[in-house]
Amino acid sequence: NYDEAQFVILENWICGDANEEFDLDNYGFTFPEEEGWIKVWGRGQDIGSTADLILTLDQETNTAVSVSQIGTTDPLIIAPVTNEDALYATIYDQYGGIGDQNFYELMISQVKAPVEYNQVEDDEFGENNAPSGAIEVSNGTRIFGQTSTNSDTDWYRISIPEGQTTNLVLSIEAFAYGSPLDSIIYLYPPEVFESSETPYTAVRNNAYGSATNLDPTLRHTVDNGGEWAVLVKSNLTGGSDFHWYVLDIQLEEIVE
């Protein structure tokens, strides 16, 4: 119940525990600038607690959930936000644990963008939700995108040189940097621009699991160049402006 949320100041450790099963602690806060990045970090396992924490971040229709990060079951969310509406962080033991050993610490901070990029997905009206609206990218592109809804699919068009063999590497940077996104990458041949029924050539996603890096890297050798398509979307249900990623594209000619 966000009407009863405790409003807190950024950059202060918040301490709490579970007095009853599924004791949800809600904290409200406002972002100090028009837009920027927020970090919401819950600690339990790393400070000796028995709590298996789940953390949510909400702002109007945008929602994100975290249950782990790489190397620990403690949750972390780093996301772009605005100050148009209040934000709410909710933390609790996802299995309903209680007792003196079921405690947590929570820190909410304003931070810099955790990744660098040189292009931004322009998708205000869902233009790139199909191959016909694919955004053009190239070797060295690092494009920032968001899977803003459950059905959001982000298509990109990349021109691969003809007359040579090319090693294509597509990497997602998201979960490892605090994004709640569990992403999946598809690579499609040029025929997909003529027929949406064209099957994909390669696909990559990382299996979901505690303390696992969910960011996929797809590597593929292309013998015939042309206009190829890349599709990025969520591997799970759910989407919001908090579900962000950077797609890194690298092309390298293979010389025999």
Ranges where pLDDT stays below 50 over 5 or more residues in a row are none
- Strand order across the largest sheet: 1-3-8-5-6
The gross shape turns out to be elongated
Number of strands: 19
Gyration radius (Cα, Å) is 20 Å
Q: How many DSSP H or I helices? A: 0
Computed structural class: mainly beta
Report the sheet-strand fraction.
Answer: over 45%
Question: Sheet bearing the most strands, described?
Answer: 5 strands, mixed
Helix content: under 10%
Summary tags:
256 residues, five-stranded mixed beta sheet, 0% helix, mainly beta, elongated
Structure description:
This protein has strands at residues 6-7, 14-17, 25-29, 35-43, 53-59, 62-66, 76-82, 87-93, 103-111, 119-120, 135-137, 142-146, 153-160, 165-173, 183-188, 202-204, 217-222, 226-234, 244-254. The chain is mainly β and 256 residues long. The chain has a five-stranded mixed sheet, with no helix packed on it. Strands 10-12-19-14-17 form a five-stranded mixed sheet, with no helix packed on it. The chain has a five-stranded mixed sheet with strand order 11-13-18-15-16, with no helix packed on it. Strand 5 (53-59) and strand 6 (62-66) form a beta hairpin. The protein is elongated, with a radius of gyration of 20 Å. The N and C termini lie far apart (64 Å). 35% of the residues are buried.
